[in-house]
Amino acid sequence: MNIILLGPPGAGKGTQAQRLVEHHGMRQLSTGDMLRAAVKAQSPVGLKARAVMERGELVSDEIVSELIDAELTAMGPETGAIFDGYPRTSAQALALDEILARHGRQLDHVIELEVDEDALVARITGRYACASCGEGYHDRFKQPEREGTCDRCGSHEFKRRPDDNEQTVRHRMAVYRAETAPILPGYETRGIVSRVDGMAPIETVTSEIDALLV
Ligand code: AMP
Questions:
Q1: Which of 30, 103, 120, 122 could hold 10 in an S-S bridge, CB 3.0 to 4.6 Å?
Q2: Residue 172 known to be catalytic
Q3: What pTM was estimated for this model as a whole?
Q4: CA atoms of 29 and 195, how far apart (whole Å)
Q5: pLDDT at 123 over 90
Q6: What DSSP line would sit under 43-82, residue for residue?
Q7: Pairing outcome for strands 193-197 and 158-159
């Protein structure tokens, strides 16, 4: 099974992808995570991507498509893929078709998380994560049970993304509307698009996605 999770920044793609990994043994392919790892490692890709990401703009189609291709090459053909944050442009959507065909895979579902942009800004600007295990938290919606201690691993270190400030978030949403939303009609004509209310509680969103995948 190969699925795309689509939706503006903060729609919950990463959270839902992690749950699909747990429920279905699939693999999450997040170009955002791959790029952040490259920035941290100061690799050539990271050095190119860093400033672009901090401005909330898109890294080149070639770079992200190569990252995805490399990940699929490293994965066994039996493991399902969840594309999280990719494709984000028409050129990437075309590249993905070509990459999947080369790997003998086909796209089963495109799941769009529908959300309210203003509520998303509040959601994104408050989010942070454990620096050690990556567990997600939020200033208003999900504080650790013991202040300053990660519920999952006990670490006391937390991190925030440098692009999670209001100005950059608004820009990332405009980029989503201009560059990413236009790829949906192409998938609709193939009859593989499903819509889920991304503003519903996390568990509800997960159940709805699970129901689509059976
Ligand atoms: P995300 O974690 O998916 O919100 O991605 C964070 C940032 O990484 C984006 O704002 C872009 O700068 C970059 N990025 C992630 N995925 C892509 C992609 N598929 N195409 C271009 N840039 C991307």
A1: 120
A2: yes
A3: 0.88
A4: 20
A5: no
A6: -HHHHHHHHHHHTT-PPPHHHHHHHHHHHHHHS-TTS-EE
A7: unpaired
